[in-house]
Amino acid sequence: MVYRKSALNIHKWNPKSFVEDYEISLRLSTLGDFAFEPTILSAKRVHKNNMSNNTLALQQGVSAAMESNAELLRITKDEQKLIRDNIRWSSIEPFLLSGNRVQAFKQAMLCINSNHSLSDKTKMFLKLFLPYSFIKFRRKEVYSKGKHKNIKELLKNGFD
């Protein structure tokens, strides 16, 4: 992201936050809309030690950023709970795909009383009990059917 210096004079960067880019974006969102540039200007390198692959830490960081800025964002306690449930729900699939079935199950159990439909909950619990070899095969199959074989192709053709 690119930020205006004048905006960063109002809301300071928090280097202590685990998700500092997300947190500053939350705070800057109170100043107005963000401009959107559809052209891909950069790509991130993904490797086994990326913190982006640490789903639980990211989930906790996003929740903490939302909670610490709740007053500024005018988010009620009920809305915070709903957001936290959605953050947990969205982390189930990455845990499952990374082979961390125990953490996926824990997150699913925390979402048992969430506002997600019975159909969505049923599908998620069925996925939790499928053999990992099936999930791994299915993931490989889905990726192999993708249009983009590598980052150069992705940058050339875009995300469509």
Q: Sketch the topology as an H/E string, one letter per element.
A: HHHHHHHHH
Which stretches are low in confidence, meaning pLDDT under 50 for 5 or more residues running?
A: none
- The proportion of residues forming helix, as a percent range, comes to 55-70%
Summarize the main sheet.
none
Number of strands: 0
**Number of continuous helical runs:** 9
Strand content: under 5%
Structure description:
With 160 residues, this protein is an all-alpha fold. The chain has one domain. The protein contains nine helices and no strands. Helix 3 (55-68) packs antiparallel against helix 5 (77-97), helix 5 (77-97) runs antiparallel to helix 6 (101-110) and helix 6 (101-110) packs antiparallel against helix 7 (118-128). It starts with a helix and ends with a helix.
In short:
With 160 residues, the chain is mostly helical. It has one domain (5-38, 45-129).
Topology:
Elements: H1 5-10, H2 20-28, H3 55-68, H4 70-73, H5 77-97, H6 101-110, H7 118-128, H8 132-144, H9 151-157
Helix pairs in contact: 3-5, 5-6, 6-7
Key attributes of the depicted protein:
160 residues, 59% helix, mainly alpha, single chain, globular, 9 helices
